[in-house]
Amino acid sequence: MNEIDRLWEFLQKLTPLSRSCLLSELERLELCGIDMPGSSDIQSKLRAEFRKDGSTLARASNPSRYFFTPLERFLIDGAPEHANAGRISRNTLTPIWEWICRDLLPTMARDYTKAVTDQTDANNPKEAMKIASGFQTKVVKVLENTLASSDGEEISRAKLGQYTASRTAFDDVIKMLHVLRSHDALMKFNAKLPEQIGKLDDSQVTKVTVLLDVIRKSHPNALPFAITLVARRLQPYWHLIRLATKAAASKSAADVAATPYAIAVSMVLDQLDDRRLALRVALKHNRVLVARDLLADIYDTEYALKVRIDEIEQSEWGVRLQQLMDAIAALVAAEVSRFPANVGHILGSRRLRSNQSLTGRLTYLAWKGRDAVTDGAAVFRKLIGQT
What we know:
Layout: H1 3-11, H2 16-31, H3 39-50, H4 62-67, E1 75-76, E2 88-89, H5 93-104, H6 106-121, H7 125-146, H8 150-160, H9 169-181, H10 183-192, H11 202-218, H12 223-231, H13 242-247, H14 253-257, H15 263-284, H16 288-308, H17 316-336, H18 358-386
Parallel strand pairs: 1-2
């Protein structure tokens, strides 16, 4: 019997819950770039047990799925360590649910699980959703009371830590609380948005900002999630920064950072980090064409940030952007170095940087010319106002 078989024999002695949590933890470590010998074999066995389709995405049971339904639009398939404003890691849901059921509200959770299971068995999803809504309200109230003190927060962190080694999973609990509190307002906001926003031009920015202002004033903690709903309709994603640059007094990083929607820039950087992780996975599995498309999108986002925000290099955004691009450059260099120097690699092609093409350079000059006219007009108006 080899080592994997012996390990699997040991795992069979654990409870199904423990094995499910182990699967989530192994996937989390893999997303963080931590490779463990034999992990892929164990993951395959665990997925065969818990996920009949063999997918890497967690499939929640009916009670937890109904409970987490309000979060669905904000879930990402990434490691909890990868912070995303307005996003919640799907891998966090399993430990959070176990924490709720075992420590936060064990008796109520048991009653809720039975009630929802009865309704799903009876093919009555509407009643199941109603029961879930009531349990969400109870969880929100208990969380508010529990997290009101530093001692309560510390105890909650420790208890949650029994189900996941992630240091940032507790942050997703706070995000969950914000979403559940403002769910109705977020859904009303979502219903007022266009089905698709192909381009976030000035007119669209104005319309969206009016809607965002309502959320910002009534539910300030829900603003990142409202912006996420906007981002879901955008292609390309980096257009999101226009929410911040349009509201700024100038294109300088300092003025953009002073706007109510500056978080949109951080969210674009979050997305860039998502692309970095996806690029690493694509290269690991030799999916070169996928890596090519990811890299082209990465370069376009980097270019947009540098062109549309002046002096970004001296800002915290710029520091983070440089760190991300250095990490991405290292991934690309490692991949290209696998081939002889006289063999061209698709990831080393200058064509991936569309901004270096003639069209890209003309677009850059047009932006700069427009900015110069706009800035000159602003200065002229200021001078006229002083006379």
